[in-house]
Amino acid sequence: MDGVTLTSAEWFNLVDGVAYGALTGVAGTNTITATGPAGVAAYAVGQRFWFLPAVTNSGATTIALTCNSVALGAKNVFSNGAACIGGELVANLPVEIY
Question: What single string gives the DSSP state of each residue in 50-92?
Answer without folding.
Answer: EE--SS---SSEEEEEEETTEEEEEEEEEETTEE--SSSS-TT
